[in-house]
């Protein structure tokens, strides 16, 4: 289940892509399938081991084209182990709401992104997320949980403040909002067979939708995304330095 829309975030074969806070690796896998040279980075060692296994399985199955590369590694989003201008694209999906120093993370992403490169940022949308916080303290008052809810204009302002130029936004996963409202209402920590019947039933619907992708639910989600999409997605570029600024910077380097 992808949150980033790759028709709005185009990749070319051989592009260097960082999936920052990759989690289970869903966006990293898609970039790999598209022929990119991918680095999937996360602070969770267990998840990184699983992502590395899936990369290996994809290589064996021939799911990635010739020239594609994939690496999974542990790392700190506030101190990325890469030189400046290392990547053509950076994805950070459902991560920034967890990190106290979100401005620091944006600064690091901008540092490692080449001029002209693209960034995709996804966060929980304000409205659906506010319902979850209202229904359940346990939803967000956990170690490593969500520490803020972004309004769209706030996130875009922070991206601009980091030197990025936003070029598009949209919402995603409207059908997932009711699932999380049900989870919060009936007990966010109740999973599997212990979950309430409405939660289990809705989960089955979501799994069916993800696996089958029927036209009816795809159309329904497209219609509902502007109203209740669970995620807010923003795309931006890192502008090239103006020629005079670039010349000044080069002069400092050679001085």
Summarize the SSE layout with pairings.
Layout: E1 16-20, H1 26-33, E2 37-42, H2 45-61, E3 69-74, E4 87-93, H3 102-112, E5 113-124, H4 126-135, H5 152-161, E6 165-172, H6 176-186, H7 197-212, H8 215-228, E7 231-237, H9 243-254
Parallel strand pairs: 1-2, 1-4, 2-3, 4-5
Antiparallel strand pairs: 5-7, 6-7
Helix pairs in contact: 4-6, 6-7
How would you portray this structure in words?
The chain has 255 residues and is of the alpha/beta class. Helix content is 43%, strand content 20%. It contains nine helices and seven strands, in the order E-H-E-H-E-E-H-E-H-H-E-H-H-H-E-H. Strands 3-2-1-4-5-7-6 form a seven-stranded mixed beta sheet, sandwiched between helices. Helix 4 runs parallel beside helix 6 (176-186) and helix 6 packs antiparallel against helix 7 (197-212). The longest helix has 17 residues, at 45-61. The N and C termini lie far apart (50 Å). The model is unreliable at 243-250 (pLDDT under 50). Residues 18-120 form the Methyltransferase type domain. Pfam families: Methyltransf_11. InterPro entries: Methyltransf_11, SAM-dependent_MTases_sf. This is Methyltransferase domain-containing protein. One of its GO terms (molecular function) is methyltransferase activity.
Uncertain runs are 243-250
Number of distinct helices: 9
Helix amount, in percent?
Answer: 40-55%
Biggest β-sheet, characterized? 7 strands, mixed
Whole-angstrom Rg: 19 Å
The gist of it:
This protein is of the alpha/beta class and 255 residues long.
């Amino acid at each position: 289940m992808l949150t980033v829309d790759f028709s709005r975030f185009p990749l070319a074969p051989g592009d260097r892509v960082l999936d920052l806070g990759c989690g289970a690796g869903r966006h990293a896998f898609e970039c790999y399938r598209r022929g990119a040279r991918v680095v999937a980075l996360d602070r969770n060692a267990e998840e990184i081991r699983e992502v590395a296994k899936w990369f290996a399985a994809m290589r064996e199955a021939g799911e990635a084209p010739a020239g594609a590369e994939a690496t999974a590694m542990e790392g700190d989003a506030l101190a990325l182990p890469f030189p400046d201008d290392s990547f053509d694209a950076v994805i950070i999906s459902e991560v920034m709401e967890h990190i106290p120093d979100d401005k620091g993370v944006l600064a690091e992403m901008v540092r490692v992104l080449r001029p002209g490169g693209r960034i995709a940022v996804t966060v929980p949308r304000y409205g659906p997320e506010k319902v979850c916080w209202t229904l359940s303290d346990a939803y967000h008052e956990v170690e490593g949980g969500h520490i803020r809810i972004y309004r769209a204009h706030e996130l875009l302002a922070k991206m601009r403040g980091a030197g990025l130029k936003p070029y598009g936004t949209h919402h995603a996963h409207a059908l997932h909002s009711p699932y999380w409202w049900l989870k919060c209402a009936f007990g966010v920590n109740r999973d599997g067979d212990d979950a309430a019947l409405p939660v289990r039933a809705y989960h089955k619907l979501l799994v069916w939708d993800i696996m089958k992708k029927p036209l009816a639910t795809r159309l329904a989600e497209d219609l509902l995304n502007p109203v209740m999409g669970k995620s807010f997605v923003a795309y931006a570029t890192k502008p090239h330095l103006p020629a005079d600024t670039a010349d000044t910077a080069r002069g400092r380097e050679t001085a």
